[in-house]
Each structure stands twice: as structure tokens, then as C-alpha cells.
Amino acid sequence: MFLHPLILWALPLAALPVIIYYLMRFRSLRVDWGATYVLELALARLKRRLYLDQIILLALRVLACAGLVVAFARPVARAASRRLSGGGVHRVVILDVSYSLLADAGGRTLWEEQIELLAQLLATWGRGERWSLVLAAEAPEWLVQDAAMTSTDHALAILAAVRPRECAANLPRALDEAVRRTQGQPLELYLFSDRQATNWTPTAAFHPAGPLNRFLWVAPAAVSDRNLAITRLQPRFDRPLAGHPCGVAVSVRNFGAEPVADARVELQLDGAHLARESLSLLPGQEAVLTFNPAFADAGDHYLTARVENDVLAYDNLAHAGIEVADTIRLAVCRDPARTGKFDGAAPFLDVFARALAADDDAGPGLAALELREINLEEAGSTSTAAADVIIVDGGTQVSQRAAAELQRALDAGRTVLFSVDDQADLAAWNRHFPAPDLLPVGLARREQRPLGGTAPLLLLGRPRPS
Question: Any residues with CB less than 8 A from the CB of 253 and at least 6 apart, and which?
């Protein structure tokens, strides 16, 4: 077997010495004279030796030319070929492609440093050497598997198409996969990764099945081992009231290898500073900061949470849009056949309106109240979508359509209040509002226990969709 069999097409060139010999050999002129017979007898013995010498010389020249061609074709014995593909040293490169490789390394990213170091390693390998390239992401990906090295340029062209991904590197799984695929061959492992071990998914211990000739971990050096990330920015309400506090939860995780003390997290509104908090985190720890800002102006705004002075800028920001309202939109669902006041909802509405209009030392009432009446049997989803709070009056004739409408309102993050009065049909409510989808529990009996002058209220809330 040959590593470069195409070069064997040059073997006919080995006949050049023979061709040159016949083109350049001396052509003698025969002249008969008296002693010709005597000379022919003497030369007959010499010709046989001269011909033998010339044949041997030509054979050596032909063999020399053929040997050069075969040498350039790089012959490999079958046993050696089997060692190259199965039992020879197999070089496996495990390349970390996690997001932390975009960290600053002094004017360059860790990824650029890592690729440069890997290119230097590949340049030391000769043609025909067996190698593999495994991308360590959430699951190992074999980009090159048990291939012969053709050229450094070809290997670098493969690397040029690889980019870091927004994922965590499962390095133990990649190591186990590399050993399993090599099937006990003598192995050289080259691990290119940073030291962000806190986001490695743990697996079983790494135990190579075959002989491990070499194991090298190449870790490019970052400016700092500190790496914090904003993992979540969640306002408590999609539509907070202007001038009133709204809780904003900001989750921060330490992906670095060292503890971080007094890290500062800034909250911005429309790009302007709003608040700032500090926290300390151990490696791999995640904590939640709660801000309680008050938004002065109604309208659409965007929030930004930012970690200050961090080595990896790509995960230091998170954004969320909010709609700040100056009016509470309240919708009351009731049967249009009923007349007079809202029997079940009236006491609650009275307390609600007085609370909104109340003045104290801190300022005026909560907000303006926008009240409307809707019929779930006729209205589409737009009627509940335009309300912040939906009150279901106790005498409302519930149905499957009404239940579906309220379910859509809850899925959209609205608040639903069930005001149960003596006109409520408990059997119909349990049938159309099954627990725990709408009602938290089934209604068994009705009890009139006023509290503070209000009718009993059943409050149902569901976490907003993320």
C-alpha cells in the first residue's frame, strides 16, 4: 500500500536510462584488413564481459529511477497500515466551543488565542498521521474522525468554519466519547479549553479504555478569571403603575473559577441609570437581586440589567420591555340578563375604588380606574386582553366558552377574581372551571362570612408566561 499512489504513474520514467543508452551509444565503422580474423577471436571473449557490465549498469540506473518514484509514493506495509488506522497512535483534539471563549485575553479573545495554539500544534504533525477533532458543546460533535493528515492548510480550513456557541461545554462527556470511539487504540488527547469549570456538566469519571500516551490541556490565559453573567431579567408586572414600585428580579451567576466579592449590577431604564446593587458569589453560585423602582412616566419603556467591569461582555446585559400605565383597566364579567347593581362584585369594587382615590402623606391615590362590563358569551379574546384585572361576578352564567376565554386571559398573565355570591351555581362552576386549571379547588358549599364589610372573594393568580 502507498500513501500517495498517484505518484506511481511516474514509474515509466524508469526506462529513461535504457532510452538514453540506445540513443547515445557509439556506432562503429567496420574495415576489413589482414589481421581482422585474429582480432575478432580476441574481442569475442571481451564482448561478453563488456555487455554484462553495461547490462548491470543500465539495470542499476533503472532501479535508481524506480526507487525514487516509489520513495515519493511512500509505501506502507499492510501491517503498518493496520497500525495506523487501528493500532497506531491516534491524536484526538477536543475543542471547547462554549460561550466563555469570547472573553477578553488582552486585545484578543480566548477563542482567537486557542485557535492559534491549535494551529501551531497541527503544523507539527506530518502527512498521513491519524487525527480526530471533537467539538465540546452540550453534546460532543465529531468534525473530523480518524482521518489522515493531508496538510496543515486543509486542517486550518476546517477550523475556520468553527465558531463559539451560546452553550456550556460538557467536557467529561467529550472525553468519554473520544475514548469510546478510538476502541482501545494508543491515544494522545489534546484538550483546548478555558478554566470555566463551573458550567461543565458533570458525568462519570474519565477512565480511558486503552493506553493513553499523552494528555495535554491547553488553556489560553484570560485577563481575569472573573466571569459573571445576567441569566434573567424579570419585571413582576408587564404593566406596572406609574409612580408606584414594581419589583424587578435580576438573576446573576458566577461562571468563573474564583469567588467574586462586591460585584455591582446596574438597572437602567431606557438607557439611563435607575438603580445599582452589589452582591458576592461563590464559583457556580447564582443569586437573585430584587430592585423596586418606581416609573414616573407612562408609556412603553425598556429595562436593562448590566454587570459592571466583567471580562466577558457578551453575557453582561439583559433587556426586558414594559408598559407603564397610569390607569388600571378593570373588567367585570356578568350575565347581561341581570339588572341593578353588581350583586357579588359591588362591595369589592367599592373598596377598590376608595383605595385608588385615597390620599396620604406620600401622595395622591394609586391610579385612575377604567371600569368596563364584558360578556364572556359574546366577546372575543380582545375583551379580556384589554383588561388588567377581570372579576367574574357570582351570578354570571358560566359555560365552556367562558372558561376558555378566562383560560386565555390567565395564560396571557392577567389576574382573575372570582366573586362568589349566593346566586353562584356551584355545580356549573365546578363543571366549567375544573380544578386546578381555573379554580384552585372545587367549590363544596357557600358560606357568607363578610370581612371588613366586603363579600367573600376567591382570588386566583397564575405566574406570567416567561
Answer: 228, 229, 231, 281, 284, 285, 286, 287
| Residue 92 phi, psi dihedral angles, 5° rounding | -115, 125
Q: Which residue has the higher pLDDT, 384 or 202?
A: 384
How is residue 192 written as a grid cell? 483546548
pLDDT tier, 82 (very low <50, low <70, confident <90, very high otherwise): very low
* Rounded Cα gap, residues 400 and 433, in angstroms: 8
At 157-207, the pLDDT tens digits run 998 889 888 877 888 888 888 888 777 677 888 999 876 655 555 544 555
Q: What are phi and psi of 249, to 5 degrees?
A: -95, 130
Cell of 27: 556506432
Maximum pairwise Cα distance, the chain: 159
Q: Where are the alpha helices (DSSP H) in 74-182?
A: 78-82, 110-122, 152-160, 171-182
Is residue 449 classed as helix, strand or coil in its secondary structure?
coil
Percent of the chain with pLDDT over 70: 71
280-290: burial string, b at 16+ Cβ within 10 Å, e else:
ebebeeeeebe
Bond before 259 cis per omega within 30 degrees = no
In sequence order, what DSSP letters do the residues of 322-364 get, joined into one string? EEEBSEEEEEEE--TT--SS-TTTHHHHHHHHHHHH--BTTBS
Choose among 427, 377, 439, 380: nearest CA to 408: 380
Euclidean distance between CA atoms 320 and 233, whole angstroms: 7
Looking at 22-26, 53-57, 99-103, which range is the least confident one?
Answer: 22-26
Q: How far apart are CA 157 and CA 154, in angstroms?
A: 5
What's the pLDDT at 391? 82
Q: What is the pLDDT of residue 458?
A: 46
Three-state SS at 301 = strand
Residues with Cβ within 8 Å of residue 430, at least 6 apart in sequence: 439, 442, 443
Q: Which residue has the cell 564481459?
A: 49
Residues with Cβ within 8 Å of residue 93, at least 6 apart in sequence: 118, 121, 131, 132, 133, 134, 190, 192
> Where do runs of H (alpha helix) occur along 210-360?
346-357
Of 133, 137, 194, the closest CA to residue 166 belongs to 137
Higher pLDDT, 172 or 132: 132
